[in-house]
Amino acid sequence: MSGGLSAGGGGGMTRGASVAVERAEAKAWIHTPVVRAMSVTGSASLLSGLLSAVAAKTMATVGGPAAVAMLTTLQQLRQAAVVGATANGHTALVQGSSALSGVRRAEYVRTVALMFTGMTSLVVAAMVFWPQPLGMMAGLRRLGTDMIPWLAVSVILSSVAVFLGALLNTLGGVGRLAVLSVVASGAMAVGTWPAARAFARGQSNALVALLIFAPAVMGAGAVAALAGFRRELASWFWGAGRWWISREARSFGAMSAAMFASGLISSGALLLVRGHIAGAQGMAVTGQFDAAWGLSMNQVTVVLSSLQTYYFPAVARSRSAAERDAHISSVLTVAALAGAAAIAAIAVLKPWLLTLFYSAAFRPAAVYLRWTLLGDYLKISSWILSIPILAAADMKMFLAADVAAFGVFVTVAFGLASSLTAAVSAAVAFVAMYAVHLLLCGLYLWGKLRYVPTLRATAAWASGLCLVAAVSALTWRQT
């Protein structure tokens, strides 16, 4: 990425603009808003991640790889269902309700509430009356598909939690949202031990009960957090205005359509690939793959979650291209260095970390981590370059990049399965997916927004890539 974008600097930005970006970035580093954002939001994300790690360790130790695979499959089914039940509209609800005021805001919130209710009802009906097709797509056998109707309860609670969380975000309760994320992870950690023990005794429905318990706790926490905003909520739901406005429904749909499609594609692609692994190699290997995936994703989540509250608003509010480019380069610099350091440490310690966070039965997952850790660095970079696309409201490009990336993921995962195992081919496909996504986002920023990374950002990204590649090569055969 750094070489290609830097090489295009002559046609994309004048020398004076480039100097302006360097000065703006230097000013940003004096005030270090990126670092502050990472430390504030990241602490909640880190605590939530640690609680999730406790839950994963408990499930792996007590239930084994099969329990991890079953729980992950149910979680991904629920996630796909929640995307459909809410039209992946959390961001659209926050943006719309924040931009409006008075009666229009109340009518917008009420209209979206009715849309959430209708969409959730349709998704729940599908889970109750047609569980077999959903279960087969995810690679579940008869026992697993029998759990899907009960999983619908978790979907209802999760949909409510998404709606309440969006309201809390609109009302400025960002700190309370961070606490809620920790509460949700804590509920999973508390409930995992009895659920894993019950699963080990053959009571598979205990995993569904766990997935009902956690969003129920989060929903209750959201209600408590919203208690301080009773006056605002009363005007939204019981004040003047109508309950359904077609104009507001169209407004919500216009904002959420691309996010909805992207969410369904990502959830569907992952379910399809995991179902292929389960069918070809069984639930034990699928559980090992899930361990590698989870360990890989958790460290990326900590890095990206600690940046997102600062980054998107900063880019969206930029008053000039130079200011926007300075924000992008600053975040790219910090994230490249932090991400590379975390990935390198995990690469060196991967056999021990798998044992620590899961159990010795998961050490074979180190084979998949060889690839997913490489993909993690590309994912961090591509995420940073995709946010300006959202800020520019170019939802067609945002969706096109996602469709292309997940298309590559599925194609490579199935295409290489004949020469590699299904799980290894999926890990390789992860790298290919984010390489394509990074390339598309980088080309867009260079060609459309005329963004060229600063020398500092280019050096940081290239150094991080070299570090990740070198450590991966040195630890490649480590299991």
Please provide a written account of the structure.
This protein has 479 residues and is mainly α. It has 2 domains: 1-31 and 317-479, no CATH class; 55-256, no CATH class. It has 19 helices and no strands. It has helices spanning 2-7, 9-12, 15-31, 33-63, 65-86, 90-99, 102-129, 131-137, 142-145, 148-170, 174-200, 205-226, 230-238, 246-316, 321-357, 366-391, 395-415, 422-447, 455-474. α3 (15-31) crosses α15, α4 packs parallel to α15 and α17 (395-415) packs antiparallel against α18 (422-447).
Largest sheet composition? none
Instruction: Tell me the fraction of residues in β-strands, as a range.
Output: under 5%
The number of helical elements comes to: 19
Query: What percent of residues adopt helix (DSSP H or I)?
Result: over 70%
State the end-to-end CA separation: 31 Å
Tell the overall outline. Answer: globular
Number of domains as seen in the coordinates = 2
Helix and strand pattern: HHHHHHHHHHHHHHHHHHH
- What is the average per-residue confidence, as pLDDT, rounded to a whole number? 81
Radius of gyration: 22 Å
